[in-house]
Amino acid sequence: MGWLWGGNKTQNDPAKALDSDLKQFQDEQQPRPYVPAEVPKAPEAPTSKPVEQPVPATEKPAEARPLPRESLFQDGRYKDIWKTYVPQNDIAVATSTPVERVLAARKDRRQTIHKAALENCAFEEELQQECFKSDDLTKRLKGRMTMCHEETKAFNRCYTLQAKFLQALGYMTSSTTTDEDEEKIQMHADKLYHRMMDYEAEVDEARRSNRPIPPLSSLFNPRRAAPTIEQMALPKNMEEKLKKPLNDYPPHERELVARAALQEAKLTDLYAEDLFTYTVTMNEDRKARQAWLTRTFGEAIGKFLIPDPPKDPSIKSYSIDQLERDIWQEDKPTRAQSGQPAESSARKGK
Fold first, then answer.
1. Which of 64, 104, 166, 289 has its CA 20 to 30 A from that of 347?
2. Phi-psi region of 37 (alpha: psi -120 to 50; beta: other; left: phi over 0)
3. Does 199 have pLDDT greater than 80?
4. What is this structure's pTM?
């Protein structure tokens, strides 16, 4: 009954009955007492100041620096990395022929114009996609039945006209223009397109209301009258490249088509300068091979296997710059000032 009054704790300690090895194992498993860590000593003050790295001089002009323009650090850093750099344009010139360069430039320009025209027609494309994928079941079924004809027609026409405006404004025709300049041309093309759409809406409203047709002004300068069909008389070889004759286009689209054709002809002349030297060398090699075959197998077989090179194109009887000056005259008065009837002038050439 000793447990009622507490008893002796040492006599009732069960650890006394444990084996010595077990007691030793128990002591080893006991947690170690906590020992606070020592406070770290403050670092000693440096005896000498660190040597400052000299900053490369940036006052030198770009021409005097050995680094290429592609380097982001024009102050002389990473010079050893850029010492073996060769620009991509130099590699293309050394490893491709002028014909390949011209074809690659034309392909890149077409792709860039295609992308820019799609960006300007993003709203029309959204309406087309919404017609096909509308949440309203009735609208979706109606769109599937009509194949969204109106929305698709508006989008296709927007893309065609936007591409024409980009060509007429000289988009991606110069290698010296910056991305900011090309973006301004793209925005201006979109502005001119919407100006044309506003004029078409005014014409439709006037026809429904039996009112006179609004006077047709120039697309590229609304303060002047649009050039007449006689003024936009393009050379025969230039007009043959159009999809249809200039008379078959609506009156308000003829100026756009003519200007786009002139810009494309101007770009073709620039490409022709790059091809001239290569063409002359190629024709000389062809003549040498033809002469060897003629001496060996006769003139008939030699000219059959290697025909004569095409004749050099005759000198153009026109100047593109002169055509532009004749079509877009500086001092041409507007139709309102000349007193010409608006309705007859808008329908002229139909």
1. 166
2. beta
3. yes
4. 0.60
